[in-house]
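General statements about sequence and structure are easier to judge against a single worked case. In the encoding step, the backbone of a single protein was reduced to a row of integers, each denoting a local shape. The record that follows shows the chain in one-letter code together with its fold in token form.
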Amino acid sequence: MKHIVLFRLFLLFMLFFPSLQAKDKYLDNHSCNECHERIYEEFQTSVHSHSYFTNTLHQTIADSISKEKYSCATCHMPMADNIKDLISGEARPNKSNKTHTDGVSCFFCHTVAYVRTAHKFNINTKARQAKGYKPTLYGRLDNPDDSDKHSSVSNPVYAKKVCMGCHSHKLNDNNTTIFRAMDEKQDSISCINCHMPEVDGGAEKMDKRARGHHASHKFLGIHDVEFRKTGMDINITTEDKKLTVTLKNKMTHPLIIQPARAKFLKIEIDRAGKVIWKNYKKEPSEDKQGYFSYSFTQEDKKVIIPAHATGRTVNNVDAKSSRVLDYAVPVLQKEDKIHISLYVQLVKSDCAIVVELDDSNLTKPQLMKEVVFIQN
């Protein structure tokens, strides 16, 4: 409780004595490697480490929206030392600027003092630094260690709202939701427990307090083959000429979140080595109930890039909920095999065409989960 009171006093002090504030000292990602080698290595494998310059999909979509303004900087280049100029179009991303190339940097995440809920997107309030003082980094550890580079404070926002600054929701200028992952009643603990599980090894090289474990900074997600198997359960029942597939979403966010992405079912019935039925012929989107994605319109015309969309529809499976899908199939015989696979396409085919993206690693469907049912 004491550290919470001290933290609040610090914020009040900085609010009423702005003359003591100075331009923030920035600690780049690599500087963290000196003491937090294992965490740095984990972070370097994460999507958070990617920037405008290393995330092909993000750069392509951002440039297709505007080659002048970089409005995505709020979440994708949050530590930019000229972020207002990037958003207004007075500046462009600069590959020689560390605050541009560090992506969602260590320093950014660990200096979020407060998250304000807002209509279009949530606002991360950064902690200010007093002139002549080391920066203060925040986290969830009790009694964290200070270093010659920074002070450390346990901040309750890291158990409640820290992920909601960027991962909650985003509405465009037409008040159309183009992204939604979390609702206002959620806290960040559910995100942290899943995407940042405890792993062996202390947070610092010296591990002065012999903690012996730390929260993984790989930020496991859809790009991890094993991790993406864990979010959904697939159950099958059959009756006469009906196949029922029940999808259970075990995650605390919807099945589909990103507007460029699609997830879909591929269902095949195999009889004696021959496929006798499929849920689609050519394109997965033919199966309207088993194809999960966002669709956007602008003045009643279909659009792929949602930046200026005026309406949307989405086929989804909500957080912690189930969806029952019924299919009319041939009468099943004993030993018929039903193969059901859930795939993710990191970039939908129509999106890749519109933004002229040619990257098979992003457009090729990748298996999330597969089950096989044998008819009795």
DSSP finds 13 helices and 19 strands in the chain.
